[in-house]
Design brief:
Elements (H helix, E strand, L loop, with lengths): L38 E9 L6 E11 L4 H10 L14 H18 L6 H16 L3 E3 L1 H6 L11 E3 L6 H16 L3 E5 L19 H15 L10 E6 L5 H20 L20 E6 L1 H9 L2 E5 L6 E6 H15 L3 E4 H6 L24 E9 L12 H21 L5 H10 L2 E6 L1 H7 L7 H29 L5 H21 L5 H24 L13 H6 L14 E5 L5 E5 L2 H8 L4 H14 L27 H11 L10 E4 L5 H13 L4 E6 L49 E8 L2 E9 L5 E8 L5 H18 L4 H8 L8 E2 L7 E2 L2 H13 L2 H7 L4 H10 L8 H5 L33 E2 L7 H9 L16 E3 L2 E3 L11
Parallel strand pairs: 4-5, 5-6, 6-7, 7-10, 11-12, 15-16
Antiparallel strand pairs: 1-2, 3-11, 4-11, 8-9, 10-16, 13-14, 14-22, 17-18, 18-19, 20-21, 23-24
InterPro entries: RdRp_reductase_class-2, RNR_2_N, RNR_lg_C, RNR_NrdJ/NrdZ, TSCPD_dom
Family: Belongs to the ribonucleoside diphosphate reductase class-2 family.
Protein name: Vitamin B12-dependent ribonucleotide reductase
């Protein structure tokens, strides 16, 4: 075995045809794709927001003007090769794409893929056009390695194997180390290793797989991934009938107890903390491989046998329901283990004559033979949504066949970390085409994620993608031959193709829109079966649904993989500095699709900008709420909504789906059992769950939430007998005897009242008096008491903005129209009073953060796009431009911009983002006042967000997974 095995040694098998004819669909004949777009220069400067230190700087990089700042930053920092500050450093997206695409073209020509040089050139231009316009992206290792002097590793996902011998176990450690060093992840099944309840040939007792997991975990934690600071990505699987299964199930739950105890003793146990390294098993995702036999035993409440590894005999019986409860309990406590459904996985296996599928990659989407790998690519679904809000099935199909061709070509020149992996990949040529932005696509089409319409659209798109991929695979088999292992597995492969076709036939379209996509998928599957019978297939696998973390940001996707929208309001960086808080552009598009008038759309969007959700949005019908359900927030999707969407897509995938089913903190163990059980019944291949706040070693970016983990906080340690207690008491700031006051009369929903507010000499609010109803009435007495309480609070230092944030948006009668031009509608008298006080006493910046503007400011926004007051030219030069449409990037003196750096913010509800927010996850925390239960990024210090069964950083593109 060698560290890197070259793909150059692979032999080319020629078919009957002379090569592919490539149609020109996207690019223009006679015009290079780069010449059709406007390019501009930008400065990329990245700072760790947690420490304040600069972590990266490269000035004058070149990108298309329609690429966001976030996309260009992530590509510059992650994918440009060469030492920063040297001539060898890449500085333009053109260089990056050319480096990759020209390598693919040359390999395609060398291995006989194209009918003519003209077809090779068309292939190059089409691929370039799709990449530069963000229609798809290859997985990260392609951008890291292809066209460089490094080994040409193109795969992100690896599956290893380990046998019951010390040589094999030590080789496992070595192989994982090489894969982590290269920036990828690996998974394997440990079930062949004898349990701790079995004897060795020498007469001693075996150590068992869990003990060997410690060594692998320590190795992964030391090497990290790609030499970076993030953890390595790995998956460890154990079969449910292994005698050590209960020990395996509880490994991470027991370690979570240890984390809790050490934290309470004063140790730093946050993720990345200096003391967390003493905790074991934290570098892997754990999964139990369950069989149909076990799941039926759980349903029936019968016993289940655990089997010796060498002889297969039952050496212990357990209550199946009791074991299932322990799995769910451990997942409740620490999110591990997940479940993989062995019989379902192998029922869809195209190569059973070669071997069973026993494991997966770390994110659970790639499932194939041991010692194999998969290179991934994902399409941006929103790019295929036409102006009439229908999905362009024909264009999508054309893109898929071009991309799958490129992916297959990459195996011809790819290098691999071990010889067995290289041999298996070249013999079976597993590919993993997938997509991103499904959640955004469904919302833009006016379809709820957890709805029949949403699931049907997802199913038909997935079916078309995989069907078109296998159709092209059969066409490639005619040109360069089927994969080497095909003859041995031909009948099994064709059987799985018929299963996919039957699943497609079982889909029942609901509308003309999904019917058109389904018709295209049906046509593709018909061709798959016919061409496959004649030619065989070039690829054993074709599709998966990966997390698409970093590459999703490269494509400016709102949502990753199969995930729903994270939140309705997101954080957006601006060229030239600064940031905005904007409502996702899919929201107004969805509202227009649903038939709302422009005035109503504007009101709903402004409401979402302020509240972060659609509940009680003015004019929005309650039956349309489901369209705007998100992964987080006030209308977060129910757990089974995630499961049902996965079940809709799974029958049309070669592999599986990287996705975590999120549950609220108060979810029960029984609910987790139900998710696991229904996932099996609905035909999923794998399920992972995450219960909010279940992990102690999970740092929060704000102090808004307290991570309690699975148990209550332990009592504080006993104090020493002698101690100094420093007590801080607020001091009352009394108003002067004579002070300025302001009396306002108002009407809310027909109810009249008066408010008098008094201020200190510095203009700070110090008291309020409210008069409602007749003197002596109960309401008048309550208002007097409320006025006194608020006034005393103000004088003792409670900030007015605190009262405003708490009392605005309270909803009760009387409510409705007011006679105040600045506050035209109020949800209650309290809502009106504190909006009025904010307008009278809070500075613009604090009001803007709360979404409160005067009539003059709203009018200014309609005319200029900015709420902010007009300032002098001298003042404006000292700050970031307030108007994003006019934000021009400041260039260094040595770099000249090729075009103005203009980044429009389309929604009228856009406003400056809070200073505390640097990503959409942190922005959601600011808006909702609740914590997003995700780790902080080690590179830039911002809050990450879920992506599949991993996490991804919106600030710099770092991931906790393998893609």
């Amino acid at each position: 075995m060698t560290e890197t095995v070259s793909g150059a040694a692979s032999t080319r098998r020629k078919g009957k045809n002379n090569g592919l004819t490539i149609d020109r669909v996207f690019s223009t004949a006679g015009v290079h794709p780069y010449d059709e777009i406007t390019w501009e220069r930008r400065d990329v400067v990245q700072t760790n927001w947690k420490t304040g230190e600069s972590v990266f700087e490269q000035r004058g990089v070149e990108f298309p003007d329609f690429w966001s700042v976030n996309a260009s930053t992530i590509v510059t920092t992650k994918y440009f090769r060469g030492a920063v500050g040297t001539d060898a450093r890449e500085w333009s997206l053109k260089q990056l794409i050319d480096r990759v695409v020209k390598t693919y073209r040359k390999a395609g020509e060398d291995h006989g893929y194209f009918a003519s040089p003209a077809d090779a050139e068309t292939f190059e231009h089409e691929l370039t056009w799709l990449l530069v316009h963000q229609y798809f992206s290859f997985n990260s290792p392609v951008w890291f390695n292809v066209g460089t002097e490094s080994p040409q590793q193109v795969s992100a996902c690896f599956i290893l194997s380990v046998d019951d011998s010390m040589d094999s176990i030590l080789n496992w450690y070595k192989e994982e180390g090489f894969i982590f060093k290269g920036g990828s992840g690996a998974g394997l099944n440990l079930s062949r290793i004898r349990s701790s309840k079995e004897l060795l040939s020498s007469g001693g007792t075996a150590s068992g797989p869990v003990s060997f997991m410690r060594g692998a975990d320590a190795s992964a934690g030391t090497i990290k991934s790609g030499g970076a600071t993030r953890r390595a990505a790995k998956m460890v699987v154990l079969d449910v009938d292994h005698p050590d299964i209960e020990e395996f199930v509880m490994t991470k739950a027991r370690e979570e107890d240890k984390i809790r105890a050490l934290r309470d003793a004063g140790f730093d146990m946050d993720l990345g903390g200096e003391d967390i390294t003493s905790v074991q098993y934290q570098n892997a995702n754990n999964s139990v491989r369950v069989s149909d036999e076990f799941m039926r035993a759980v349903e029936d409440g019968t016993e289940f046998g655990l089997r010796a590894r060498k002889t297969g005999e039952v050496i212990e019986t357990v209550d199946a329901r009791d074991l299932f409860r322990k799995i769910a309990q451990a997942a409740w406590e620490c999110a591990d283990p997940g479940l993989q459904y062995d019989d379902t996985i192998n029922d869809w296996h195209t190569n059973p004559e070669t071997g069973r599928i026993t494991a997966s990659n770390p994110c659970s989407e790639y499932m194939s033979l041991d010692n194999s790998s998969c290179n991934l690519a994902s399409l941006n679904l929103l790019k295929f949504l036409k102006d009439d809000d229908t999905f362009d099935a024909d264009l999508f199909a054309k893109a898929v066949e071009l991309i799958i061709t490129a992916m297959d070509i990459s195996i011809c020149f790819a290098d691999f970390p071990t010889e067995p992996i290289g041999d298996t990949t070249r013999d079976y040529r597993q590919l993993g085409i997938g997509y991103a932005n499904l959640g955004a696509l469904l919302m833009a089409m006016g379809l709820g994620y957890d709805s029949e319409g949403g699931r049907t659209m997802a199913a038909t798109i997935t079916s078309l993608m995989t069907g078109q991929s296998y159709k092209r695979s059969a066409e490639l088999a005619a040109v360069v031959g089927p994969y080497n292992g095909y003859a041995r597995n031909a009948e099994a492969h064709k059987r799985v193709m018929r299963k996919h076709q039957a699943a497609n036939d079982a889909v029942r379209p609901l509308t003309i829109i999904d019917s058109a996509v389904h018709k295209a998928a049906t046509k593709a599957w018909d061709a798959v079966v016919k061409l496959g019978e004649k030619n065989g297939y070039r690829n054993a696998q074709a599709s998966v649904l990966a997390p698409t973390g970093t590459i999703g940001f490269m494509m400016d996707c709102d949502t990753t993989g199969i995930e729903p929208d994270f939140s309705l309001v997101k954080f957006k960086k601006l060229v030239g500095g600064g940031s905005m808080q904007i409502v996702n552009q899919t929201v107004p598009r969805a509202l227009k699709k649903l038939g709302y008038a422009e005035e109503t759309i504007e009101a709903i969007v402004e409401y979402i900008a302020e509240h972060g959700h659609v509940i009680d949005a003015p004019g929005l019908k309650t039956e349309h709420y489901e369209v705007f359900d998100t992964a987080m927030g006030a209308r977060a999707l129910k757990p089974m909504g995630h499961v049902r969407m996965m079940a809709a897509a799974q029958p049309f995938l070669s592999g599986a789906i990287s996705k975590t089913v999120n549950l609220p903190e108060d979810a029960t163990v029984e609910e987790i059992e139900e998710v696991f059980l229904q996932s099996w019944k609905l035909g999923l291949k794998a399920t992972a769950i995450y219960r909010d706040s279940c992990k102690v070693g999970q740092p929060l970016a704000t102090g808004k939430g307290e991570n309690k983990g699975a148990a209550a906080e332990a009592p504080a340690a006993a104090e020493p007998e002698t101690k100094t207690v420093v007590e801080y008491r607020p001091t009352r700031k009394r108003l002067p005897k004579s002070r300025q006051s302001l009396t306002t009369s108002f009407t809310v929903g027909g109810a009249e009242g008066y408010m008098t507010s008094g201020a200190h000499e510095d203009g700070e609010l110090g008291e309020i008096f409210l008069k409602l109803g007749k003197q002596g009435s109960t309401l008048a007495g309550v208002m007097d008491a409320f006025s006194i309480a608020v006034s005393i609070g103000l004088q003792y230092g409670v900030p007015l903005e605190t009262y405003v944030s708490k009392f605005t948006n309270l909803r009760f009668e009387p409510a409705g129209l007011t006679d105040d031009a600045d506050v035209r509608m109020a949800q209650s008298i309290m809502d009106y009073i504190f909006r009025r006080l904010a307008l009278d006493y809070l500075p613009f910046e604090e009001r803007a953060a709360l979404g409160i503007y005067s009539a003059e400011e709203r009018q200014r926004h309609l005319e200029t796009g900015s709420y902010e007051p007009i300032v002098s030219e001298a003042e404006s030069l000292k700050s970031t431009p307030a108007e994003p449409q006019q934000a021009v990037e400041a260039q260094s003196s040595s770099v000249e911009a090729t075009s103005p750096s203009v980044e429009p913010v389309e929604t009228k509800a856009a406003k400056p983002a809070p200073a505390e927010a640097h990503t959409s996850a942190e922005l959601l925390e600011q808006i909702t006042g609740t914590a997003v239960d995700s780790p902080l990024c080690f590179t830039c210090g911002t809050k990450m967000r879920p992506a599949g069964s991993c996490y991804v950083c919106e600030g710099c593109g770092s991931t906790s997974g393998c893609s």
